[in-house]
Every structure is written in C-alpha cells, then in structure tokens.
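[audit] Reproducing an earlier prediction to check determinism. Same input, same settings, fresh worker. If the tokens differ from the archived copy the diff job will pick it up downstream; this log only records the rerun itself.
[audit] input (235 residues):
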Amino acid sequence: MKKLWMILLMVTVLALSGCMYPDSERSGSTIPYEEQLRAVQSAVEQYQENSGGLLPIKTRDQDVDAFIKYPIDFSKIVPAHLEKIPSNAYETGGIYQYVIIDVEENPTVKLVDLNGPERIRELNLRKSVNGHVPIEEMLTKDVFLPNFSAMGLKEAPTVKSPYSDRELPIILSSDGNFYIDYTADLHDAVADKKADVESGEDIRHILYDENPILPAYSLPYTVDEEDNVIFMTEK
C-alpha cells in the first residue's frame, strides 16, 4: 500500500511539473535571449561580408507582410558562422521566427512571436469552414471586430503582447485577413512620448526600435493631428 502511495505521489508531482513548466519553457524556447540575437546578428554580418553582400534569407513572395518577408535560412550560417540554431528558434521547436529587417540600409535581426499567427491560423480554419466571418462591430470602414461567438468560440481570442502585460484583440480587415490589434500598446508609447511620430507615417517602429520582437501580422498605424493612434486606412 505504501509503495502504491509513493508511485501515485511521483506521478502527481511529474504531472504538476509538466503543467507548470511546459517543454518549450523548460528548454528556454520562449525567451528572446539577447546573447542569441547578438550571435545570430554577428553570423549574418559575417555571411554578408563573405558572400559579397548577400543575406542568409529564405525566398518569400514580394507581397508578404514586411515583418516576415526575410526569414533567416539557418542552413546558410550554421555551422560556418554560428555554432547551432538558437533554442528559441522555430526550427528547433521554439516560438520565434528569426527574421531580418531593413535589408537594404542596415540588416538587423529581429524576432516574430509565432503565438500570434497560430491564433490567426485557427481563425482562418473556422473561416474556411463557415465560408465567411460575421461582424460584430465596424471599427472603421476597412477594419472590423469579428463576432467570435457566431464563429463558435466561447470567448474572443487574444494574443499576449510582447510589449506589455495586456492581451491584444484580433481584428478583421476589408482584405479578408485577421490581424493583431496593437492600438493600446501604440497609444501607451505615444502618450509616454517615447518617440516623435508624425501623422501619415507608419508608427509601428516605436514598438520594436528598442525591442527584439516585431509587431508582425498587424495593420499599419499612424496618428492624427491630436496624436490619437489610428489605422492608416483611416487617412
């Protein structure tokens, strides 16, 4: 009886450990390590220097989201310029896609959190089944809040912000695609005067200038004459 009790206790502890520390977190795959970013940045620069200016990137369609347009092809820099692929990279089971932005002027390594596109992928599956997306509210003439209840969801899906503690809503554009809504984070950044922004410019850069993670899968935003954050489609 005592032996059976010990076995049950061990199983319970292991089960709780698994819940508290998922495999991805135990492996450090959810943390955007600065040293890993620096190592990949250095490897990209070495590759570019040795290849006559080429970048170690995968080919993507020209009309893809600018933030995910240039994903890093690790096969081109590992192991020649980088010992191994970072543990938090998608290729090794992590939640981040390593990408390069500003490829013409200043190629810079950044990260895309793949939790967001995973939520969007799930919504796209529901959209393909239903054939349409019911609308709950029109935010602008081109941006809408979907009726997630009518889509069969008990609650509206959200995405954890990489810039704050809030859960970000998912919206729908007139192009038929779902996007993550960063309005609240941008409002905070503008209100705190963290950066000078002008009406008519895409202000999303104020989120990632000092942060390794990009606001991918989002619509472009700007500010109006009173520094209120608005979708650029409103201009």
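[audit] rerun output stored. Observation attached for the diff report: The first helix runs from residue 2 to 20.
[audit] end
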